[in-house]
Description:
Blueprint: H1 2-8, H2 23-28, H3 69-98, H4 108-120, E1 127-128, H5 138-148, H6 160-171, H7 182-192, H8 198-227, E2 229-231, E3 234-235, H9 237-244, H10 254-262, H11 276-288
Parallel strand pairs: 1-3
Antiparallel strand pairs: 2-3
Helix pairs in contact: 3-8, 5-10, 5-11, 7-8, 10-11
Amino acid sequence: MGIYRLRTGTSPPKEVTRPRDGWWLALIGNPSGQPVGAGEDSDRPPCSPVSSDIGGDPAQPDIPPKTPPRKGFLRFFVRWLVIGVALVWSLAALILLAARWIDPPSTAVHIQRRLQAWIHHTPYHERYKFIPLSQISPDLQHAVVAAEDARFYQHHGFDWHEIQIAAEDDLEGGRTRGASTITQQLVKNLFFGTGRSVLRKGAEVTLVPVAELFLGKRRILEIYLNVVEWGPGIYGAESASRYYDGTAARSIGREQAARLAAILPAPLKRRPERMNNYSVLILERMRQMNW
């Protein structure tokens, strides 16, 4: 014993006390089924830690699963797409707010026609002059409302009655009837051009209430009458009146106004002098509306 302490500086290992009685007690504390101390001098490997679940695998540290690269890119793309759409929508809303006081210098339709002329190498001359609503003949104002949106002063951007009629005509297989209001057409002219798509319609629906809130009926009608397309390169009531009738918009008469309003659904194909039947219908609508 003394020699052992001198050489190692430690005490010799204690001997394991084996239970003399109740060998079953050793079995309870030994998952291997051997009595305690049995095989102490053997080369049995140490026991591995066991998971808390019975029959489970050895416990592993909690490592969060890695996101696959493809899913990570998709999330990144969707996140920035949503942010981009929100920014564009906010910019459009700010433009509508500014339009309450500032006359639009141009519109998406104007730009679209310039690009088309440039692509097809065709001559293009733009006639566009913005004038106050007070300088536009009341007959022309009434004719446009009667032709394009008879319930303009009753609805709040959407004419649900006309939408229902158009939907019923479509379901019955008849000719599809348009139900766009003047507010919807203004938003389309300002931001989306003449193209048609579900995405464009969805964006238009979200901006129409903004236009109604920020602009009001009088300003909506004023901007629409000044920016709407009235022929090849002809935009606004003043330019249309001078081009087709050789007079200012304030001097347009009742029948002239009905003929000008009649070409709005297809301004690149129609001419006022050919709109005899439709102009009569517009005049009848004006009489029914006490105009």
